[in-house]
Automatic annotation (TrEMBL):
Co-factor(s): pyridoxal 5'-phosphate
PANTHER family with a match to the protein in the record: ARGININE DECARBOXYLASE
GO molecular function, one term: carboxy-lyase activity
Signal peptide: none
Keywords attached to this entry: Decarboxylase, Lyase, Pyridoxal phosphate
Coiled-coil features, chain-numbered ranges: none
Organism encoding this protein: Dethiobacter alkaliphilus AHT 1
Protein name per the record: Orn/Lys/Arg decarboxylase major region
Domain Orn/Lys/Arg decarboxylase C-terminal: 443-494
Amino acid sequence: MLKNAGLSPAFLLPFWRDFLLKTGNCCFLWKNNNVMEQNQLPLWQALQKHTAKKQAWLHVPGHGGGPGLPPEVRERLGSVARYDLTELSGLDDLFAPREAIFQAQQLAAELWQAEESFFLVNGSSAGVQAMLMATCGRGDIVLVPRNAHGSFYHGLILCGATPRFLPVAEYKSVPLNITADALQQGFANYPEAKAVFLTSPNYYGVCADMAGIYEVVRQHNALLLLDEAHGAHLGFHSGFPQNRGHLADLRVQSWHKTLGALTPGAVLHRHGNGIDQERLRSSLQMVQTSSPPYPLLLSLDAARKQMALYGQQVAGEMLAQAQKLRRQLADSLPLLTPGDVEGLGFSLDLTRLTVLTGEMGCCGRQAAALLAGMGIDVEFGQPGHLLAIMGPGFCPPENVELAEQIIATLDKCTPGKKVPPLPEPQQAMAPGEAFFAPACFLTAAEAVGYISAGTVVSYPPGVPLLAPGEVVTPDVASYIKDACAAGISFRGLDNAGRLRLVKQEVGR
């Protein structure tokens, strides 16, 4: 590793800056050429200074820096508890930052080429909700692919906007992304659309043509909101799809998903100047805890520093490990490859490894369960595919032929019960209107013709089967029955397995 080769980070930063600016391999620039600041850890320095002078703990949290923790927790996490602090003098305030948090967020903004960056302690889900609350209101239309994360629909409830769906390309049961042409048609159908909400890369690492989509959005004077939860690492290595996330007006990244931050650490970047900045700050405060955990904030600051100093190396190692495992599996298992998606206008992040289990007569859910029993945990399995993710912490086990174990396990799997594709949604009410309407509860079979008042979603990947304001069609009821028979569980059903519905009926 470079950091063990006698080269100091201060020496490397100017070299990397010049390299990146010349090659265009990365999405970020350092403003003001003040690259030496990326060597700093403002939050760590503030926490160290505070703990060094601490005499008495007369404030929350009640564990007092560790002594008050339950013994089992104190034994394992006691050394971290001394940094589990609150908004004390010198430690800044997440929602009115002026000192260490302000400096840390500014460094993140410089690295990711943003006007402002905001640390998120409630995950990228909070960032998605805040993006919508800051930009859209009651009656506004948002163009969105159906495979948006469930937090998008929660954001619609909060802001009052209504979705209009764009078609998502698929390949052998795997949802890919939207094209610029599909978006152009969306604007032709809904020229009044206020914003476009895009997920790129998606859970499977499929990246949309951001430059093409950006041009379409700007033609129609709309806002571009980007869920880049799975793409914070893009732009740090030329082997990844070209990153254009900075073209969005607002984008959210889950640093705990692809970098080294603690769960659920994430960041929201503001790139556009047409955003109501005070409304954005207010929205962020509304959807996050008023007691932000400082160990999580520290991990975000440290993840930024790691990527500023060693980003190309970290990303390169991720890519190398992913390519190695892919090569070992490719002759025996059908994988989603760049060639499968490039002809459709997309690109693929190779650290997302999708096995097309349906092509080999294997149930991906069953395969995931068998692998977990062997101590090999993958991200998730669906009836037709299996997803494995390789992040910066992926370390192949020593003396274990991981690829051979995966191949042998999948060879044992049976087809399992088939599940049809997700039904097309039929929007009958705005999500917020449906959510707050008087509700009743019925089984899926009884609910046909009713309007959903809740979100029904299988997680992961977190794409709703049913969102507030959508009609429970016969296809939806049938899907729930078939999916439950196949072992798929849903969030959004009550303890008796019933749907939450608006009391009024449609078509009866």
